[in-house]
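Next comes a concrete protein, fold included:
___
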Amino acid sequence: MKVIQNPKEIQKLSEDLRKQNYHIGFVPTMGYLHKGHISLLNAARKQSDYVVLSIFVNPTQFGPLEDLSIYPNDLPKDLAEAEQAGVDFVFTPTEKVLYGSNYQTFINLNELPNHLCGLHRPIHFQGVATIVAKLFNIVKPHKAFFGEKDYQQLAVIRQMVKDLNFSIEIIGCPIVREDDGLAMSSRNVFLSELQRKSALYLNKALNEAQQHVFQGITDSKTLIANTHEMIAAQPETKIEYIHICDKDTLIDLPSVNKDCLMALAVRVGQTRLIDNTILFIKK
């Protein structure tokens, strides 16, 4: 496994591999790897000749009051896990390299960011789209792998790739959960024992919503109210949003009459967690 910081070096390496008809799989991350990230690397390993992992905490997707300054990091551990997962190249650029002193270019999508997390993090998806586009141009992968826990991020990237004609296949991979059901996240490390118990109710509430749909309760306001009540009853929880929406456009739906997305964001203590599920009608 080779660790590379220089964008031009990995760009040339990728170009050389492509000329030899090797296929490159890419997993962009902000580091502090967990089993969710490893599942993406495993998928890339199965579908690619060479696997590239990037580790970069992107400052342009954090607002002024968000957790950029305390975002967890452990590069030596990440590199050890990456090597064990069969990664060929790890790209670890610096902020100075990717965003020079006079950086001016950003990518904005008109509609998808105006829902869910985008309503509460107004610059977030501009930063996400911009850094992912930059990484795609540097790494030049054939396929890129993203987790479905960040469902809106995945939707934004798919739309950007389509709109800007990137010749890259975007692969969405299932949410990976802890044994207790908590969706894996680098931010879980910030949870106290009590907060973690409260955090488990995000997934429990989503599962209960699906059971309610099976029982014939399909009104979105009712389902959201039940989910809100269940989560709000837990200590140290502050609900940011709960939405039931079209899984492609992310536009809110009045009822569950087709497969749709139920997504939520909750602060547990000071830690912001997201989770989602696809609600479906029993055939």
